[in-house]
Amino acid sequence: MREDVESLDIADVTANWVNAAVLQRQIDDRIKALADLSHTPLFFGRLDYLHAPGADEAEGGEGERFYIGRRHVHDAVGDPMVIDWRAPVSQPFYRASKKDPMDVGLRRRFGYTGGDLTAYEDERLSDPAEAEVVSALLQAEIERPRVGPMRDIVATIQPEQDEIVRSGLSGSVCVQGGPGTGKTAVGLHRVAYLLYAHRERLARTGTLVIGPNRSFLHYIEQVLPALGELEVKQATVDDLVAHVEVRGVDSADAAVIKGDARMAEVLRRAVRSHITPPTESVVVVRGSRRWRVPGHELEEIVRELTARDMRYGAAREALPQRIAHAVLVQMERSGEAPDDRVQDAVARNAAVKAAVKAIWPAVDPAKLVLRLLSDADFLAEHAEGVLSEDEQKCVLWERPARSVRAAKWSSADAVLIDEVTDLVARTHSLGHVVLDEAQDLSPMQYRAVGRRCTTGSATVLGDLAQGTTPWATRSWAEALRHLGKEEAVVEELTVGFRVPRDVIAYASRLLPHIAPGLAPVSSVRENPGAFEVREASDGARDVVAACVEALEREGSVGLIAADARIPDLASALSDAGLTYLGPGEETTAATRLTLVPASLAKGLEYDYVVLDEPAAVVDGEPDERTGLRRLYVALTRAVSGLVVIHAAPLPEQLGA
Ligand SMILES: Nc1ncnc2c1ncn2[C@@H]1O[C@H](COP(=O)(O)OP(=O)(O)OP(=O)(O)O)[C@@H](O)[C@H]1O
Question: Binding of ATP: at which residues (predicted)?
């Protein structure tokens, strides 16, 4: 297939160089998408249907065989050899069961080692004599040691995951799932599925995956390309609202207020306050004639524009045209026959421009937020009845900033600027947005994400128990409301694919304290996992020793510690001659150890985790609940084993 595309000669089919360039670009993209990945086999499954799909079963009819793979592959004459996993015909590969065989006689799974086919496994779904067994290949895939970035799970998507992956484009979905239940994997595969099922529409409108930080995005960035999808954008929320350079940090209290949805009302009022009802008439001189639009008529125009659900900036652009229209009506009344050009000329007339400037001045979003945070009176005027006096005091800068450039903007401030930007001019909306680790967003951040999918849909992924910001959401209903996707269906994933049984049981002791009501994850891993709690007698040296031990086994090792302890541990590792990476950097066979500050551990996983000083992880956060949640995240990163090392007493909530 790739050679066919490479040999295309477009010289005769393109009329001009623009067409030629566009076509060549498409061809190059296609060649790139058809790249042969030596470790990525073309197919991983086979389905033998009892009847050709679509044929009337009652008539008997021949069965049909399909190979299922990452992408569609056809032979030299165009007959399909491998069916894309996303095609409807492939669906029984994921969903069929003994209970509901979906007309499948045989399901075969292929196992690979590197790029070599090394195993296969058959299930005769329609044979009542055969008992249902757990797939050994699935089990092997789950237990596989982890090295390098996140991989796709196309070969082993589970039925409850598949339901989310294949849910329609028009509706939004929210997935609550404990650590390692495959939320991130499901979100990424869902994008791939939607791109397959609605390629043209989404190519036009765009798709976006939002993750918590750069290292996480780096960790997941190869999943979609491996599925042949190269066009999906990835960003953090901070990237989306990067209107100013962020150099400041808010106190937790200030950040909570700035992230509160009530701020939207304050900002809306502040923007609207720029509109000054006209008192004087506008006089337009054209040739020897003067046309007067009286104050009361201007007032009516302004009232009408304010009442409409228009963006501030759009209404500002409409205003001169409305004034010009009023002039035109007068011209017509006096027997002239002005056309559109006259209206445009009147709209550009200096007197009209001056009136617009006075009535409806341009608003610079960053300057407006700067003023709100610097000028107590201005803030009080617009926050009256919305924020209490104490709250106003809390968000005001201690020292007013002199200019947008000089201000020490925080990331919550950038979100406020984004809100104002949208009040002035509508934000471009995408076709689909995947929001991962969604529990950590503030209401104002949800609004920022929501306006990027007003005309599209969203997949919202998260775990309430892993919310580690002071403004983390309390419920999905609330989060979805701020996002503008109240209609989203909330699904729950409870089967864990990452964390071994003993480890998840230990971590789940925290659940009643951090998210009462959430059920613990049940691990599907057969291997109970290595798990040990050690009291340190020799400080950092014990931690280093545990890392060395872990490195003797196969796979990646993550040393997770409270952010404040990272520098000391870094020098201890270096002193011991151990090389290590930062989170998000790719582990290789040569360097398998990563030193992870607890604040960046979210979403990542390592075969063996050495967790340093749990009490310090808890103490590193502004309050105990957040601290325990941070600890819960750190405890649930391990795939094969966890060693907890402590000198200080363990947090009492970890007691049995
Ligand atoms: N169906 C599956 N088959 C094989 N592996 C799977 C499957 N589902 C998930 N996994 C694996 O389990 C691990 C955890 O998945 P993922 O990171 O998507 O979970 P998560 O719910 O986002 O976790 P967290 O809450 O910690 O961010 C990954 O290594 C993923 O590849």
Answer: 177-184
**pTM as predicted:** 0.90
ipTM given for this complex: 0.98
CATH topology of domain 148-274+363-495: Rossmann fold (3.40.50)
Ligand 1: distance of its center to the CA of 499 in Å? Answer: 9
**Ligand-binding site membership of 78 (annotated):** no
Q: Is 446 exposed, middle or buried (0-12, 13-18, 19+ CB in 10 A)?
A: buried
**What is the per-residue pLDDT across 172-181, written as a single tens digit (0 to 9) for each?**
999 999 999 9
Per residue in 558-607, pLDDT (tens digit) is: 999 999 999 999 999 999 999 999 987 887 888 899 999 999 999 889 99
Query: Residue whose CA is closest, atom 23 of ligand 1?
Result: 180
525 Cα: distance to centroid of ligand 1 (angstroms): 12
With respect to CATH, is domain 498-654 assigned 1.10.3210.10?
no
Q: Domains of the chain: which residue ranges?
A: 2-33, 148-274+363-495, 282-359, 498-654
Q: Do domains 148-274+363-495 and 498-654 have the same CATH topology?
A: yes
Locate the ligand 1 atom nearest the alpha carbon of residue 178 and give its number.
25
Which single residue is written with the structure tokens 């499948």?
Answer: 104
Burial group, residue 51, by CB count within 10 angstroms (0-12, 13-18, 19+): middle
Q: 46: helix, coil or strand?
A: strand
Mutate to test the pocket of ligand 1, among 85, 183, 213 (most ligand atoms within 8 A of CB): 183
